[in-house]
Amino acid sequence: MYSITANSFGEWRNAARTLLGAGISPQAVHWQSDQQAGLFDSCNLESIAANKQASASPTLTVPAQFISQAKKASCFIDINKPNEKWAVLYSLLWRIRHIDKHTLLLKSDPEVQALQRMSKAVNRDKHKMKAFVRFKCVNEDESQRDRYYTAWFEPAHAIMELTAPFFVQRFTSMNWSILTPHGCAHWNQSQLTLSPGIERPEIKEDQYDEFWRAYYCNIFNPARLKEQAMQSEMPKKYWKYLPEATCIKDLSRSAAAAVDNMVQSGTTNSERVRTSSKSVAGFQDKLRSRNRE
Amino acid sequence: MDILSKLEILADAAKYDASCASSGTEARNSLKSGGIGSTDPGMGICHSYTPDGRCISLLKILLTNFCLYECAYCVNRTSSNVPRARFTVDEVATLTMEFYKRNYIEGLFLSSGIFKNADYTMEQVVAVARKLRLEHRFNGYIHLKTIPEASPELLAEAGLYADRLSINVELPTEKSLNRLAPEKNARSITRSMARLGSGIEEYKESKKHARKQGNKKLVAPKFSPSGQSTQMIIGADDSNDSAVLRKANQLYQSFKMKRVYYSAFSPIPDSSSQLPLQAPPLVREHRLYQADWLLRFYGFGIDELTETANTNKTTGMLSLDLDPKLAWAINHREQFPIDLNKADYERVLRVPGIGVINARRLISQRKVRAIRYQDLSKLRLPLEKIKYFVQTIDYRPDSVRLESANFARLFVNNTDQQMSLF
User: Does A136 contact B at CB distance below 8 Å?
Assistant: First the structure.
């Protein structure tokens, strides 16, 4: 049994390259991360390479799709089986290399499905992070150029590094920090810095949060209440990041009454303004006669 | 009036426009261009959802809800008693920027009541987009509602700044339009849609040409890269689903619409006496969307969807109980079961319960290994539904069931349960 430590996609790739070159099968590898090191002594990759006289320079050609899915799966966090992802990735790599290069096309294969599930979960997490991060300006009195924005977010997977480029390309002429338990990203309009994760900091309300809530409450149509549809796209676990979420309960509760009110309030005479304003009636009559032509 | 109060009024006034899409435009990236904002040619982002289940992607507001038109279905019509407000160009630009910087939105969807006249109104709407693009260097998404009577010069400038332009067709027939929106003109709506359509086409061609020439400079000015869309109100007039779908199909064909939105007329405060008292069931709107998808992505022809077997003979309406694809399959049982190992992609797509993604998966999987019934559950396909319609190397459905007169009843309860999800 070879015990191999991997904490990131890069480390996994290096190890996988060596193992594959040395012809070590997935069944003979035990994957672990630094958190649990000590359970088994980690093997020295160089010694594997040296001992096994690796088939010279294992340049790996694998489908590009595998690499991009593997990068995502590497960010996957499963507290109960933290290293299963590394095992799945190596087993698939082995199969692509030695058994069937079209392995990824076996859409109902358990390992292919596991890879898909992990990369999909990471994708979804990335998507939700892009959607639900909310920046708060911490120094509203400063000039636009010097304003600084921070956001606190807890993604389900370790996706800060993977998602940072999106925020850089979008909020380019802003200074900001996105803080998460799995890593933080900081941007000063020219340089991206990554730092280790932190615990939830204190972040103040932003003056625009009130405007945003006003918008949210008024764009809602009480005649179409469908709370389940909302919750399936915006599960409750995200609500703590969203200033607008405090409105949800009241909007839902008062929806029926609001609709009743509309229906009860009766109808309005369409001539109401026309009879009192010659200019309105004149404007409308001109258009109406044109339309009859 | 303070900005907060204006925002309340002008957001409330904008909620009946269904579109909030921010997808399908060209890729922009402020790291390359400077400024603020980015767009992705693929998926848009929904930054929030309101309890009506609708996504909030854009700041969707009116510049003003003062309006000289008397459209019976509209909350902002002249005779309505709603409170009125008007934003300045600066106020909308600032709100958009500040909302965007906090990551509340993907951009702006700006529309307006008609005040003074068409050109004056359109000029103000364009002024907001111009300010955002040129002064604030905003690279996010902009959707402008276009006034059909505005001058071609203003339309051209709108297309320069906007990712999407739209003109609402409002109602499926000219007769209904004349009755319910007497100031609107069906011919000028069509004329302007055609103008937008050709502007969009020219720009696309110009991009294609430039790419062929090794990314030479474009000859045509930029024009609404995310195309045009429109909206039809459902249930305010007596047009049936067949008429609605035929109109939609014609709009897709003639103007290469990206989307036709269907908006079930819903109770509005202070409604007009010209409207029906009863709002249509929301399921009707949902069925129309499903039929629209079949038309655009599933290779269904307009005649297949509106043939009398599919819509009720006397009413011309789609079934509310069954989704239109299932309804079609039940009416064409003789074409089933479909052999998942032999049928081409188009046939596989016809199976109720198999969507575009799973159809592709099945096709790619069977190249490696023949499809077995067990594979269907591994792909998490809805077996209860598809088991009547498919055949695999180890499975054939019970043909007695397929031929039974009560076949359709098998599905009605299931679909009821599904409906509550929407």
Answer: yes
Write down the domain spans for chain B: 3-235, 324-419
Out of A195, A225, A244, a domain closes at A195
Residue A70 covered by a domain: yes
Query: Cβ distance B39 to B141 under 8 Å?
Result: yes
pLDDT of residue B270: 73
Task: For residue A223, report the phi and psi dihedrals to the nearest 5 degrees.
Answer: -75, -5
Q: Is B190 on the interface with A (CB under 8 A)?
A: no
Q: Which member of A208, A230, A263 has the closest CB to residue B98? A: A208
Segments forming the whole domain that contains residue A37: 2-127
- Chain A interface mutation, best of B4, B52, B179, highest count of A Cβ atoms under 10 Å: B52
Distance CA A178, CA A192 (A): 11
The answer to whether the CB atoms of A234 and B48 lie below 8 A apart is yes
Instruction: Assess A171–B contact: CB distance below 8 Å, yes or no.
Output: yes
CB of A184 closer than 8 Å to CB of A166: no
The span from the CA of A24 to the CA of A4, in Å, is 12
Q: Say whether both A149 and A228 belong to one domain.
A: no
Q: Per the CB < 8 Å rule, is A105 touching B365?
A: yes
pLDDT tens across A110-151, in order? 999 999 999 999 999 999 999 999 999 999 999 989 999 999
